[in-house]
Design goal:
This protein is an alpha+beta fold. It has 17 helices and ten strands. The N and C termini lie far apart (about 75 Å).
Length: about 600
């Protein structure tokens, strides 16, 4: 049988070349594309359909039509995700063959559709005509290059300074720093029984954390080299780009606690604090609404394309709620609780009104998400709509979250959600919408808890690190239960677009782990000063607004000439990110900081 099949394939090739069959021209392939050629040797026409394995329960889409009797047809396919392809008979709508394959960038593949012993099936034989590119070689080279640079400019000077003087050890155990609203200034405190002013060092781990998150955000906003895992997930799941926003929100919460404690000790009253947070919130909302909606290439402002929700709008509103919680229920001094049963969790018990508020907010999110009736949509729907879920709910993108935003904002929100390309959605959906802001506040409150731990256990580094680890374990277990450790099948899937509860708990876990690691390396052991991330971390508003408004103009970016691979796009993304880090460094040297 195998011999007969081999002979038939050989004859088919000869017949195809000699009988004037349809020729296939090879198009120019771009990044994340491959060429797939179908050779139909059946006596009837066939339809080729496909779906992405990342697309949850998606309806098969038309790929190409191949005529009968030794005709060929070619198509360009995406190589980002695994594809499931099936061949159907045009006359009988019978599935002849089906397979799943992860095609690689730049490859030329062919599929020969042959007759089978069973009339209802066919044999599909794959072959590779041109070997694919190594799409991960650019990122491997970039990673090695950055590792060498880090070794030369960070590790070596750190080791050299450590060997020079014992003063390094004194700085390791310097505690009780005071903080400004942005953790951006150092304050002098008077030592007990002495009039000498002593300057305390900054909490560098917080600046480095903020700067690291901002650097990653700039990189992914420049395209992340065109790699899919540096872009937002189509719907459920996590990519690198999905980590950045909750890190920022977490840092906001931590900074609020540290800054307000510092200002409270300096005698700043509640009314003055309220004026300060109101002003800062108004500025953030204005920046997000006016400036980041506009670019000179867009032409005159038009209400028809203006986006009302946005990143800075959400950050501003989240900051306002967190700051209000801290103003209303802040303890001026930590009362001793030795002997009380709740002493081990006093950093939680003392703030029970805040916890009660957060629990009520989360209950509100759960009730609206799973109980709000939506016209022509199932109650509690969390899917992307479009062709997902077998195409049953095409206009239900985002469930309650999308419905509320469309009801309030109409079309004045994000028109190109991450699910649009894969799920073929037609409804606008904004990842910074109203309902998700509730869980943004919850995420920031977890950051506030980190700040309270630093204050309650200052000088006790082991206690601080253990508390961070305990919170990371609790949140990690919660995320695992809610998501069932799967992308699609959990009670509440991990979803950045919806800011689902499992997304908040998983990001809270990662945030506590990352802050604990940086705190140990920088503020406890002093092995690393946080360079270069501390520089954009101390000028975060300027870098974010600057790269959003000017980032797509020369010298930060340019029109790419070589679009067949990731080399130029990755270089452009790294170059633009490096320029903003350098700008932040120069501003740091000149002591120029944009404050709100």
């Amino acid at each position: 049988m195998e011999l007969v099949r081999l002979v038939s394939v050989t004859l088919a090739v000869i017949l195809t070349s000699s009988c004037g069959a349809q020729t296939v021209s090879a198009p120019t392939l771009k990044m994340d594309q491959a060429l797939l050629i179908f050779h139909n040797q059946l006596p009837h026409e066939v339809e080729v359909l496909y779906t992405s394995d990342y697309c949850y329960k998606c309806v098969y889409q038309h790929l190409v039509h191949v005529k009968a009797s030794y005709n060929n047809a070619s198509t360009v396919i995406s190589t980002k995700f695994t594809l499931t392809i099936q061949v159907e008979s045009s006359k009988r709508n019978v599935i002849l063959c089906r397979w799943s394959e992860t095609y690689e960038e730049g490859g030329h593949y062919s599929v020969r559709i042959l007759r089978s012993d069973n009339a209802n099936n066919a044999t599909c034989i794959h072959s590779v005509h041109r070997r694919p590119n190594n799409s991960y070689l650019p990122i491997l080279v970039a990673t090695l290059s950055l590792a060498i640079i880090a070794l030369l400019f960070v590790v070596a000077p750190c080791i050299y300074r450590k060997c020079q003087t014992s003063k390094f050890l004194k700085k390791i155990f310097c505690h009780s720093p005071k903080y400004s609203l942005d953790n951006a200034q150092t304050h002098a405190t008077q030592t007990e029984g002495s009039a000498t002013k002593v300057k305390h060092k900054r909490l560098r781990s917080l600046d480095a954390f903020r700067g690291f998150a901002l650097t990653v955000m700039v990189f992914v906003n420049y395209g992340g080299g065109g790699y899919w895992f540096f872009q937002h997930a189509p719907w459920n799941g996590l990519t690198v780009a999905d980590l950045v926003m909750p890190w920022f929100v977490f840092i906001i919460g931590t900074s609020v606690v540290l800054a307000f404690r510092s200002m409270q000790r300096r005698g700043v009253g509640r009314l003055q604090l309220l004026r300060k947070i109101t002003w800062r919130t108004a500025v953030l909302l204005t920046l997000g609404f006016c400036f980041l909606n506009y670019s000179p290439r867009d032409g005159p402002l038009s209400w028809s394309w203006l986006r009302i929700p946005g990143v800075l709008q959400r950050l501003g509103f989240t900051y306002f709620v967190l700051a209000l919680l801290q103003i209303l229920w802040e303890h001026k001094e930590n009362p001793p609780m030795t002997g009380q049963w709740w002493a081990p969790i006093e950093d939680v018990v003392l703030y029970w009104p805040q916890w009660l508020t957060i629990i009520l907010l989360e209950t509100l999110w759960l009730c609206i998400t799973f109980l709000l009736p939506i016209p022509n949509c199932p109650t509690g729907y969390l899917g992307a709509g479009g062709i997902g879920d077998y195409g049953l709910y095409p206009n239900c993108t985002g469930g309650s979250a999308g419905y509320i935003d469309r009801l309030i904002f109409g079309d004045n929100m994000y028109r190109y959600p991450t699910c649009k390309e894969m799920y073929r959605t037609t409804q606008p959906f904004d990842p910074e919408g109203i309902l998700g802001t509730i869980n943004s506040v919850v995420m920031g409150f977890l950051g506030m808890q980190a700040g309270k731990i630093i204050i309650f256990y200052k000088g006790k580094n082991v206690h601080i690190l253990c508390r961070f680890l305990v919170w990371a374990i609790i949140l990690g277990i919660s995320a695992a239960i809610l998501s069932k450790c799967t992308r699609e099948e959990g009670f509440i899937p991990v979803n950045k677009n919806l800011w689902s509860l499992s997304y908040v708990t998983s990001m809270g876990c990662l945030s506590f782990l990352l802050l604990a690691g940086m705190y140990f390396i920088m503020d406890v052991m002093g092995w690393w000063g946080g360079q270069p991330f501390v520089y954009p971390g101390m000028n975060s508003i300027l870098v974010y607004v600057g790269h959003s408004m000017l980032g797509f103009y020369f010298p930060f970016s340019w029109e790419m000439r070589f679009q067949q691979s990731h080399w130029e796009w990755l270089f452009q993304s790294l170059w633009g990110t490096a320029l903003w880090v350098m700008i932040a460094y120069l501003l740091y040297r000149k002591k120029i900081f944009l404050k709100i």
